[in-house]
């Protein structure tokens, strides 16, 4: 065995034995560095005779090339091992929980969601949304709506009053959203198509009555709107709102001071399953709204000639239809801000009611 | 308004079933609230005890053989002491539900002997409390037939929910008239005959308050015998929930319901002198029939005799002159009272009576005198006696209203074509008198319909009798264009603010608009014009000046239930005054415990810290941004209202005057007063104060200019006085070159002894975007020098060495 062979054996052994990239680098420097064993051999070529050089040149250069290749191969091999080791070391328990996104935690109150649903439906029917103040004058809440002074009809509303002012007039918390009918007529010429969601107040409190509740009022005024149109609008609304292909509704003659003729409306439903109401089926009737043709005195109060203009109006409880649709049993819980209730009955912020995407998911 | 089916049939000839009648009542606007068809009593049959033998194993039991009319005798074990052979009583077969003991019977063995049913006591049928023995009927009671029918207990009871506009339907007669008009039978009320009286009524009556009493009819009947009223009358009164008293009183109650005509009877021997109808004296007292004393005011009307006020007009009679079993001479009153006055008097005194119910809605003036005649007739028939002539005082007669009615109104308002003859026939059947042949007829309104004033009222009459169901829904004319924006700016902002805050992990609450006076005052409210005169509870007396107290107390309620880390918000109204403009639209929110944006509580990846002023600030800015506020132009200043922590709160302003919001941690005294424990931080933004966006001629966005040159960042640390606000420093740095500097952020704030007393270090990162060329080292040096110079000028700070 030549010493070249011996050298090659020892370098190859060293490469094979190198445990990491640092060791490989040491082997490379020892063999191919400036003073490396192979570099030293190469330097001896210059002092050789041409013949010697001819035979030794390829031998030493061959050695250099093989060692270089072996170094590269081993280096790559060690890098793979190092990466594998690092990856193994970096392994985590991916079943550890992450924090829930804030958008998943947040909730929209059912009242706001239902108002958005109502707006989506009536927007499609060409209605605008109007609003008005909670603190009202007796005129807007009663007199302009054809509640005569002292009439028993005023007693149907358990009104919250403020203390009388120096003129003896006392403001009220509006008992219904109907004052906005007058405010709208005062500022807007027909044709009028509006819905008015908002807070209303009556001095009453039990599982189905709350001193503060929410109503949505509708008003259509033009030169032809009649009871037949009103029935259509309300039936279309109920179908769309309760998301059923058909509903059966019962219109009963009734009385409200601000409409004539006046009607109350029941919707057919099935309440045979505990805690659940299904619409469009069943044999129960549930009252859901009051409506009627706007009383001539109300049109006059709004500055309109009742022989020229006509229209209809309706009002229903937002909380009530929310309870019917989504099954909350107790109205009082709406105003308690219990986070467990909000979490359960509330809506995710990105669940936006639209007609094209469905009102509720 | 309650009545029984048989009572209705006194006035209405009809073959209609109970169900048909009930359905029709609701369909014509007399909404049926409930029907008790007495079905529970139907299974009980009249049965005769054939034999009664001692039970072999029980002293107090007997074994009966009972004939129920259905064939072979039935064996029944019975414990009633009065059970005996020959007794006729009420029998319940196995399978029958017995209401008084709440048991459905089955065949059972009692002490070893089979019993196939039960002979019942009155208590077991819930007829009375009688339970000393089983029901014992007269010998002629027909065995095998319905006990309920025999005892007149099968008369279905109907209750209607009467709307306040229909005084005519406060009587069985009036309800029958409506049903007849709707085609469900024929009205058959017997006509009222005039009673011939003898001699003048000795008690005279003077009306001193004609504005409150438009008429009064009175008559004396001498020599009456006032015992119990007949069974049929008692049964009807009991059925509708009235207690029979004596015949004279029962007649007045009966006619109140039968004809909607409230009446009153006085024991003539207890009346002193003559009657005067007058206003009450201030503080005058009356002992009324309910044995209570009422103190009156001159707004109220009384019937007085020589001893003073006796009855409260239209509301309740007086105790002193009431009729009892010893009454022999009776004065019968049929009067008219001003409806609003009766309503007010009843409301102020807190008296609800069947008379008030009718007078405040308006009784038929033309039935005042017939009502007296009818009452007299019944008194004579049931109590005997000799009547005087009726005395009628003050009644000027009824001037009927006439409404001009274009028949086309029916189609115009309802959309349905009702033939002319049909419309007129409906009105005629209801008692209206249409006059004329043209397209517009004059319609005379009957005296019992004070609610009908105009043509729309007549449309309602035609519509409800013709049938609302006949009206076929017709689509509303559709708009001929794509619908535009339907929300106002404020509505859009409210909606956006809600979604923006919910996306930040907060839950929307809806809290009361009224809070306690103490809470209102804590948050700058409590104005006298915002205090309710009649709050539902003491702690709900004042309109809220802020959404924060409601949210803070809601958070505490949740904490008390074990949920301390809550983030709540509300977008709603607050009240600065009682005018529409003083109602503000506000978005507010609070975070409690560790309910921060990233999540609350502990986690393996790092625990959430306590909430603080900057959580609230971030929420406030997010809400404002969602509402379209120019967030980059807002100023944040100290000086939030007193309910906040003075050193950890801020005000958000747009320009020097417009306050858009406040935020911060809360003053410990505020939390203490609200009984709320921390840590808690919150904000309130006034979304109605955000300027209306400018109307833009185009929706095109400004052109996007992208620089080709690499953006770079440079860090600076300045030592400034502790009082220098970071905002001032960053504004100064940004102002050094508004073209090149695109952003300045604060990445470190440090205070330490090494900086010197009262100093702090603020480290900023400046983002630089070259626009024309790559910047050279010299360019950067020049820019850095300008930044340092500007900061020095504005804050007195120096680059940290």
TrEMBL record, chain A:
Q: Which GO terms describe its biological process?
A: phenylalanyl-tRNA aminoacylation
Return the EC number. 6.1.1.20
By its UniProt entry, which Pfam families does this protein fall under? Answer: Phe_tRNA-synt_N, tRNA-synt_2d
Location comes to: Cytoplasm
Record flagged with keyword Zinc: no
Q: Which family does it belong to?
A: Belongs to the class-II aminoacyl-tRNA synthetase family. Phe-tRNA synthetase alpha subunit type 1 subfamily.
Report what the protein is called. Answer: Phenylalanine--tRNA ligase alpha subunit
Source organism: Pseudaminobacter salicylatoxidans
UniProtKB/TrEMBL annotation, chain B:
Q: Which InterPro entries match?
A: aa-tRNA-synth_II/BPL/LPL (IPR045864), B3/B4_tRNA-bd (IPR005146), DNA-bd_dom_put_sf (IPR009061), Fdx_antiC-bd (IPR005121), Fdx_antiC-bd_sf (IPR036690), NA-bd_OB-fold (IPR012340), Phe-tRNA-ligase_IIc_bsu (IPR045060), Phe-tRNA-ligase_IIc_bsu_bact (IPR004532)
Provide the residue positions that the database annotates as binding Mg(2+): 451, 457, 460-461
Question: According to its UniProt record, which reaction does this protein catalyse?
Answer: tRNA(Phe) + L-phenylalanine + ATP = L-phenylalanyl-tRNA(Phe) + AMP + diphosphate + H(+)
The record describes how the cofactor is bound as: Binds 2 magnesium ions per tetramer.
What's an example GO cellular component term for this entry? phenylalanine-tRNA ligase complex
Transmembrane parts of this sequence: none
Q: Which cofactor does it need?
A: Mg(2+)
Q: What is its main location?
A: cytoplasm
Q: Is Metal-binding included in the keywords of this UniProt record?
A: yes
Q: Which residues form the FDX-ACB domain?
A: 707-800
Q: Where is the B5 domain?
A: 398-473
Q: What is its EC number?
A: 6.1.1.20
Q: Which UniProt keywords apply?
A: Aminoacyl-tRNA synthetase, ATP-binding, Cytoplasm, Ligase, Magnesium, Metal-binding, Nucleotide-binding, Protein biosynthesis, RNA-binding, tRNA-binding
The protein's GO terms of the molecular function aspect are: ATP binding; magnesium ion binding; phenylalanine-tRNA ligase activity; tRNA binding
Protein's cellular compartments = Cytoplasm
Instruction: Tell me which Gene3D superfamilies the record gives.
Output: 3.30.56.10, Bira Bifunctional Protein, Domain 2, Ferrodoxin-fold anticodon-binding domain, Nucleic acid-binding proteins, Phenylalanyl-trna Synthetase, Chain B, domain 3
Q: Which family does it belong to?
A: Belongs to the phenylalanyl-tRNA synthetase beta subunit family. Type 1 subfamily.
| NCBIfam families assigned | pheT_bact, YtpR
- The name on file for this protein is Phenylalanine--tRNA ligase beta subunit
**Organism annotation:** Pseudaminobacter salicylatoxidans
Q: What is the lineage of its organism?
A: Bacteria, Pseudomonadati, Pseudomonadota, Alphaproteobacteria, Hyphomicrobiales
């Amino acid at each position: 065995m030549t010493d070249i062979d011996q050298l090659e054996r020892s370098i190859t052994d060293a490469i094979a034995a190198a445990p990491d990239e640092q060791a490989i680098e040491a082997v490379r420097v020892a063999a191919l560095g400036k003073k490396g064993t192979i570099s030293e051999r190469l330097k001896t070529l210059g002092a050789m005779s041409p013949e010697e050089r001819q035979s030794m040149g390829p031998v030493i250069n061959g050695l250099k090339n093989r060692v270089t290749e072996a170094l590269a191969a081993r280096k790559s091999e060690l890098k793979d091992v190092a990466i594998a080791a690092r990856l193994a070391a970096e392994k985590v328990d991916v079943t550890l929980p992450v924090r829930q996104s804030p958008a998943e935690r947040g909730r929209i109150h059912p009242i706001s969601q239902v108002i958005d649903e109502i707006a989506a439906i009536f927007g499609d029917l060409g209605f605008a949304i109007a609003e008005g103040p909670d603190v009202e004058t007796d005129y807007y809440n009663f007199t302009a709506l054809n509640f005569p002074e002292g009439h028993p009809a005023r007693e149907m509303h358990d009104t919250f009053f403020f203390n009388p002012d120096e003129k003896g007039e006392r403001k009220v918390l509006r008992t219904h959203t109907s004052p906005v009918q007058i405010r709208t007529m005062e500022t807007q010429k027909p044709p009028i198509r509006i819905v008015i969601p908002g807070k209303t107040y009556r001095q009453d409190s039990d599982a189905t009555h709350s001193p503060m509740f929410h109503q949505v009022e509708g008003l259509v005024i033009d030169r032809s709107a009649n009871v037949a149109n009103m029935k259509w609008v309300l039936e279309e609304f109920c179908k769309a709102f309760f998301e059923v292909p058909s509903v059966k509704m019962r219109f009963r003659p009734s009385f409200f001071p601000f409409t004539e003729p006046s009607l109350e409306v029941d919707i057919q439903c099935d309440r045979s399953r505990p805690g659940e109401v299904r619409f469009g089926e069943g044999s129960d009737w549930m009252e859901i709204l009051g409506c009627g043709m706007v009383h001539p005195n109300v049109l006059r109060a709004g500055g309109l000639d009742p022989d020229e203009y006509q229209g209809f109006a309706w009002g229903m409880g937002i909380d009530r239809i929310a309870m019917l649709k989504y099954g909350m049993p107790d109205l009082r819980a709406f105003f308690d801000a219990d986070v467990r209730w909000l979490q359960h009955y509330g809506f995710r912020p990105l669940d936006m009611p639209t007609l094209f995407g469905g009102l509720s998911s | 308004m309650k009545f029984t089916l048989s009572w209705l049939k006194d006035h209405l000839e009809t073959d209609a079933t109970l169900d048909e009648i009930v359905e029709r009542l609701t369909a014509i606007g007399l909404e049926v609230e409930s029907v008790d068809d007495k079905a529970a009593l139907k299974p009980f049959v009249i049965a005769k005890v054939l034999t009664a033998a001692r039970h072999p194993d029980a002293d107090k039991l007997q074994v009966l053989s009972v004939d129920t009319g259905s064939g072979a005798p039935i064996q029944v074990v019975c414990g009633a002491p009065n059970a005996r052979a020959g007794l006729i009583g009420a029998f319940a077969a196995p399978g029958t539900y017995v209401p008084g003991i709440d048991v459905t019977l089955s065949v059972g063995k009692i002490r070893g002997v089979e019993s196939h049913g039960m002979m019942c006591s009155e208590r077991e049928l819930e007829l009375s409390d009688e339970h000393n023995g089983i029901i014992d009927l007269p010998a002629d009671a027909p065995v095998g037939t319905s006990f309920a029918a025999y005892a007149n207990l099968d008369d279905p009871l109907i209750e209607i929910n009467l709307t306040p506009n229909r005084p005519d339907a406060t009587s069985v007669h009036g309800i029958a008239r409506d049903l007849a008009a709707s085609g469900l039978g024929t009205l058959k009320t017997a006509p009222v005959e005039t009673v011939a009286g003898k001699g003048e009524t000795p008690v005279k009556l003077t009306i001193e308050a004609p504005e409150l009493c438009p008429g009064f009819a009175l008559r004396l009947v001498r020599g009456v015998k006032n015992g119990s009223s007949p069974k049929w009358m008692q049964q009807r009164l009991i059925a509708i929930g009235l207690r029979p008293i004596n015949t004279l009183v029962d007649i007045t109650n009966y006619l109140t319901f039968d004809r909607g005509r409230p009446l009153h009877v006085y024991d003539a021997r207890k009346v002193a002198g003559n009657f005067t109808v007058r206003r009450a004296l201030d503080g005058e007292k009356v002992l009324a029939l309910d044995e209570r004393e009422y103190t009156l005011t001159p707004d109220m009307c009384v019937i007085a005799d020589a001893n003073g006020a006796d009855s409260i007009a239209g509301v309740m009679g007086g105790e002193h002159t009431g009729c009892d079993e010893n009454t022999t001479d009776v004065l019968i009153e049929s009067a008219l009272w001003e409806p609003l006055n009766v309503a007010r008097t009843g409301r102020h005194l807190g008296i609800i009576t069947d008379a008030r119910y009718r007078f405040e809605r308006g009784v038929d003036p033309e039935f005042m005198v017939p009502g007296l005649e009818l009452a007299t007739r019944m008194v004579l028939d049931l109590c005997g006696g000799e009547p005087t002539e009726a005395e009628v005082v003050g009644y000027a007669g009824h001037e009927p209203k006439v409404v001009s009615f274009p028949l086309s109104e029916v189609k115009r308002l309802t959309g349905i074509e009702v033939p002319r003859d049909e419309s007129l026939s409906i009105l005629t059947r209801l008692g209206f008198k249409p006059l004329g042949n043209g397209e517009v007829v004059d319609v005379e309104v009957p005296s019992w319909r004070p609610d009908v004033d105009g043509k729309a009222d007549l449309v309602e009459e035609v519509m409800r009798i013709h049938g609302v169901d006949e009206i076929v829904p017709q689509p509303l004319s559709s708009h001929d264009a794509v619908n535009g924006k339907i929300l106002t700016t404020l509505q859009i902002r409210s909606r956006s603010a809600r979604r923006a805050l919910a996306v930040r992990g907060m839950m929307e609450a809806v809290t009361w608009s009224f809070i306690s006076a103490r809470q209102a005052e804590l948050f700058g409210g409590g104005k006298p014009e915002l205090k309710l005169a009649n709050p539902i509870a003491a702690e709900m007396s004042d309109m809220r000046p802020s959404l924060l107290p409601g949210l803070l107390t809601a958070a505490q309620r949740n904490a008390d239930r074990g949920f301390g880390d809550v983030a709540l918000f509300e977008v709603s109204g607050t009240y600065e005054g009682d005018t529409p403009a003083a109602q503000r639209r506000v978005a507010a929110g609070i975070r409690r415990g560790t309910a921060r944006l990233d999540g609350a509580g502990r986690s393996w990846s790092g625990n959430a810290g306590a909430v603080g002023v900057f959580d609230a600030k971030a929420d406030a800015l997010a809400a404002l941004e969602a509402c379209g506020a120019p967030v980059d132009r807002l100023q944040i200043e100290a000086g939030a209202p007193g309910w906040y922590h003075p050193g950890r709160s801020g005000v958000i302003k747009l320009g020097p005057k417009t306050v858009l919001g406040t935020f911060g941690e809360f003053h410990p005294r505020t939390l203490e007063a609200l009984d709320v424990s921390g840590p808690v931080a919150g904000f309130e933004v006034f979304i109605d104060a955000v300027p209306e966006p400018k109307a833009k001629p185009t929706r095109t966005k400004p052109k996007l200019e992208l620089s080709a040159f690499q953006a770079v960042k440079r860090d600076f640390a300045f030592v400034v006085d502790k009082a220098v606000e970071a905002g001032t420093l960053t504004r100064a740095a940004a102002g050094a070159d508004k073209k090149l500097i695109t952003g300045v952020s604060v990445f470190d704030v440090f205070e330490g002894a090494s900086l010197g007393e009262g100093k702090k270090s603020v480290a900023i990162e400046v983002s630089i975007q070259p626009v024309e060329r790559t910047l050279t080292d010299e360019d950067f040096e020049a820019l850095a020098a300008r930044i340092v110079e500007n900061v020095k000028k504005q804050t007195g700070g120096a680059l940290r060495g």
